[in-house]
Design a protein that fits this description.
Elements: H1 2-7, H2 9-12, H3 17-27, H4 47-58, H5 68-97, H6 112-143, H7 151-184, H8 195-206, H9 215-223, H10 232-241, H11 249-256
Helix pairs in contact: 4-5, 5-10, 6-7
Length: 257
């Protein structure tokens, strides 16, 4: 026993554990057996409207009276159900907008954007070919020296003249733009330590923000909070995965919208 007392750190420090336990129990004796709530237990839905709804449904099952605890329980259950649906829809929306280009776990099997760009390029080349054919036809019509007063020939000559004027105007506009850009010179980027940025950082410092972070990150954090946008397609996908809702009338109405 003497050896245990020597090895006991508490006894060597002069602390009596029995006295300390008695003090702790005496100090918190008024809290023992009580339930502490951080906020009032308020129902999520309107009690009166929910009671009427439950009674209307319960008439088919001969339910004429309803206890207030049942109303509160159904209200809390509805709240938890909506919270669960919102969490699932949020995960679906985040997965829809997330990109996996930099991940090694994903391999692109078909690039839809590249396919669309290829089709757009084909359409552009086809349109360019037709424009070249029409241009050559108009130029041939403009160079022809037939004396016959053919209305169709006159129309083609007028159209060729308008096309040449339009091309000349485009060339002149392009040359004017290049001349203006050459006169202005290369565009200079504004340094980060400019007076505007400095004053903005000083204002942020005055509001209690540390000066070590950059102005752009602070502005992005303050003015552009991260928001998850949920659309109807996400909600429909969530309802299709739910066992209780994948055959419901609500899903069919959502699909018709």
């Amino acid at each position: 026993r003497d050896e245990d007392e020597i090895n006991d750190v508490a006894s060597m420090a002069g602390v009596n554990l029995n006295e300390e336990n008695a003090c702790i129990l005496a100090t918190n004796s008024e809290l023992i057996g009580t339930v502490i709530r951080s906020c009032a237990d308020e129902p999520f839905l309107s009690s009166e409207a929910l009671r009427k709804k439950i009674l209307n449904i319960g008439k088919r099952h001969d339910i004429m009276e309803l206890n207030s605890d049942v109303v509160n329980l159904i209200s809390h259950a509805t709240q938890e159900r909506l919270r669960g649906l919102l969490e699932k829809v949020t995960v679906i929306a985040q997965h829809r907008v997330s990109t996996h280009k930099g991940s090694d776990k994903y391999i692109i099997s078909s690039d839809t954007r590249a396919q669309l760009r290829f089709l757009e390029k084909l359409d552009h080349l086809e349109k360019q070919r037709k424009d070249e054919e029409e241009r050559e036809m108009l130029l041939r019509a403009a160079k022809s020296r037939s004396n016959k007063e053919d209305p169709e020939q006159l129309r083609l000559k007028q159209k060729a003249k308008e096309m040449q004027q339009l091309e000349l105007a485009q060339v002149q506009q392009r040359e004017a733009n290049l001349t203006a850009l050459a006169a202005i010179g290369p565009r200079k980027k504004r340094p980060l330590d400019s007076p505007n940025v400095g004053s903005g950082l000083e204002d942020l410092k005055g509001n209690g923000i540390a000066s070590g972070s950059s102005g752009f990150s602070l502005t992005k954090q303050l003015l552009c909070p991260r928001i998850t946008r949920v659309c109807l397609r996400d909600l429909i996908f969530c309802m299709e995965q739910e066992r209780e809702m994948k055959h419901s009338l609500t899903l069919y109405r959502a699909l018709l919208k």
